[in-house]
Amino acid sequence: MYIVNLNAALVPIARTRDFMILLSCVTIVLLIALSAVLSRGITKRIVNLRNAAIRIADGNLEDILPEKDDYSDEISDLLKSFRIMVGRLDALLNERFQMAINLKNAEIKALQAQINPHFLYNTLDIISWRAIRQDNYDIYNLIKNLAKYYKLSLNRGRDIVPLSDELDHIRYYVNIQNERVNNNILLTVDVKNSFLNLFLPKLTLQPIVENSILHGLMEKDPPGGNIRINAESTNDNGYAIHITDDGVGIAPGKLEEILSEQKDNEFRAGFGLNNIRYRLRLSVGGDLRIDSQPGKGTKVTIILPHGKNAGIVV
Known about the structure:
By secondary structure, the chain is α+β, with helices and mostly antiparallel strands.
């Protein structure tokens, strides 16, 4: 048996107790500080993402989020995906803006092409009546075709016209050209009545036929040849209009240059084939394709989708 002072016996226990309390307090403080730092790092990125979404709603797509992220977690994946989405949205908006500019430029060119015909049409009408009074019917027929050609060019200011109007426009144009080449150009239109009410942009066929004549038929020896226009349905419920000639054709290198969308090539007549392609894409969602073999001829195909203002049969 031993006799021990109680206070002396409790001193080590008290020290151990005080040390454990101090250690717990320090640990809690450190955990709180560490949690605050981690929470701030997480919430800061979430707040940045929220602010970025607010700026996008206000129409600002530049400098939305920093490119570099020091973390590798789910939020980092979310930020990366968000940056990619914003980049694609910005590219899409720029593309639509450029498309709107191209469409406006095409409309301006079409408007410029309508200004002179309006005055010429009225003047030609006067000349035709004077030709009738003098019994000069050759001049009258030529003037009549030219007047109707310009009248259809105006077409009451409409930008989208039925295929029947475009075909009439082509007939008058070829009649005028035949006066120059002694009727050596044979135009064949093989289009069913069910396709005559297909809608397409005004002045779509004429530049193509003009190219066929000037760069295809007129370069043959002797000048002249055949142009055939036909239409058919496609497998995707759309429509295809083919303009085929038996001219000299186009060399592969020249064809690649014509189809290039990066520059304005010299193979053009008035609006140019690329302008026609832009107008088809922007106004009705269509497209243009060219197939050619040197010495055998050229085939230009106009693709019209089925939809509003685009190849609808009414």
